[in-house]
Amino acid sequence: MTLVTFWGTRGSIPTPGPETTRYGGNTACVTITEGDSLLILDAGSGIKRLAEFLGGYQRIDILLTHLHLDHIIGLGFFSPLFNPNVEVHIWCAAGTGLGLRARLNRYLSPPLFPVRIRDLPCQLHLHEVSRTNFEIGKFKIYSDYVCHPSPTVGYRVEIGEKIIAYIPDHEPTLGSMNFPHEPEWTSGFSIAENADLLIHDAHFTPDEYPNHIGWGHSSTTHALQFAQMTGSKHLVFFHHDPSKTDEDLDKMMGKYVDQSSWPFPVELAVESSTIEL
Questions:
Q1: Is the pTM of this model over 0.90?
Q2: Spatial separation of the C-alpha atoms in residues 128 and 191, rounded to whole Å
């Protein structure tokens, strides 16, 4: 059985509080487990709580989509990084200039953090990916660049015949003259094609999006159209706007998502929830 668990669902800065208790206030962090195999997708603030449940894992793989702060802010508080008995592999989009170690060191060093990446006691291994195929345990993984400011990838994870697509920061309408009718020209199509579960950016409402073109995020309508275009079987809205309360997100779903209009279930990512595949 494959389990997908949400430890952080928000974008930008974390906003935990009573107004976000149902959908969560932590930033992006998702796990995929299959038996004793584990993947961690992004290291937002939700990864700190995740660490409490990792127990006896001697190897941990963290797949970062990119290095915006909301996706790495939890790294410095992730306890396995301070355990010399744990092997930690961090995978991330290759940049055009500095290597991954140098880019991560901008956060994991003073004045932003007291401990430098070179002083972490874990057995740390860094990997840069682009349009890359690789395997970790039972998982076959494909990464590719997607439309978002700064080098950003999405991940396609295959476990047997099951496919999970993770594209938390994405603006698929950019670069496509006739979205959603030109899949071959649409960013992220190769990641999400025929996915059993698509976890996708839905930061803006359709009314908000025109004032944020080029910011690197989808509207709910664009996420729905992208899921339909790729033949995805289940869509989970992700990267919730941190300014939106639980009530705001409920209203957004009620106003802009007609479940009967789409050939797949649609839901909002809920922190601490698990989807079984």
A1: yes
A2: 17
| CA 246 – CA 271 distance, rounded (Å) | 12
> pLDDT tens track of the chain, all 277 residues?
999 999 999 987 655 566 667 899 999 999 999 998 999 999 999 999 999 999 889 999 999 999 999 999 999 999 999 999 999 999 999 988 899 999 999 999 999 999 999 999 999 999 999 999 999 999 999 999 999 999 999 999 999 999 999 999 999 999 788 999 989 889 999 999 999 999 999 999 999 999 999 999 999 999 999 999 999 999 999 999 998 999 999 999 999 999 889 999 999 999 999 999 9
Query: Could you tell me which of 76, 70, 31 has the C-alpha nearest to residue 54?
Result: 31
Instruction: Give the whole-angstrom CA distance, residue 5 versus residue 255.
Output: 27
Sheet holding 59-63, edge to edge: 123-129, 87-93, 59-63, 37-41, 29-34, 2-8, 274-276
Whole-number Å distance between alpha carbons of 13 and 74: 11
d(CA 22, CA 194): 29
Given a contact cutoff of 8 angstroms between Cβ atoms, the answer to whether 139 and 34 are in contact is yes
Q: Answer whether 48's CB lies under 8 Å from 54's CB.
A: no
